[in-house]
Amino acid sequence: MYKIMTINDLFHRSDFLIIGHRGAAGLAPENTMDSFRLAIELGCPLLELDVQRIYSEDGTPRLVVFHDDTVDRTTNAKGLIAGFSVEALNKVRCTNDLPIPMLEDVIGLLAEHPNVGLNIELKSKETAGLIAQTIQANPHIPVLISSFHHDELAQFRQLDNATPVAPLFARWREDINDIATNLDASAINIAATSVSAMRMQILLESKLPVFAYTVNAPSKAEKLRQLGLRGIFTDRPDKFDLYLLN
Ligand code: G3P
Ligand code: MG
After folding, report:
1. d(CA 197, CA 86)
2. pLDDT in tens, 38-73
3. For atom 5 of ligand 1, which residue has the closest CA?
4. What is the pTM of this model?
5. Labelling 68: which of 18, 78, 122, 146 has CA 20 to 30 A away?
């Protein structure tokens, strides 16, 4: 019987996963379709992107793929992303004249690449309901939902008790494993700057795979691998051909 790949299958396909951070953000404008296509071409088994909620002019909420609070750094416009309607944002351009994708655009791309998974980071609050609906409508895409907003992940868990989640941590705290357990998490995603040998021993007690962001130097990735991490988020997947899967 044909079996849809899950994130857990993907975790077991490789000892050390190279996750394309915002696609391949060091090689193409971050969180754009070019960036995601490039990360796939380079062999990333999992793509990370950030989503935020905005509204269409008719009031329909949508998920846009975008990292910052404002569009100033990465586009030809200015202002808060939340202040744009979907229609107004369609006219904005990132570097290289690329539009800002909606989450469905990336899901459409992944439908053509059944061996690639998607790590959707809930960047803004009040995204849990929308993301649960999107997953229900696209059950063929292997997704991992992560967020620094652990309350948002808890809300998502109420709506969907099957899709894998991973709490994100920008800093070390003693209760990381408890938070992961309470969310019935499938992974722990942590800033590479917060990882040490001693802390990794604690995280390994959770028995969950631990992934670190953002690592662009292969020597650093190798050190983390030796500490027991199971993968990294990188802007430069081209530097990690050793671990890539094609
Ligand atoms: O999900 C890993 C990483 O993307 C978290 O930090 O700021 O790059 O979204 P940030
Ligand atoms: Mg992110």
Report:
1. 45
2. 999 999 999 999 999 999 999 999 999 999 999 999
3. 213
4. 0.96
5. 18
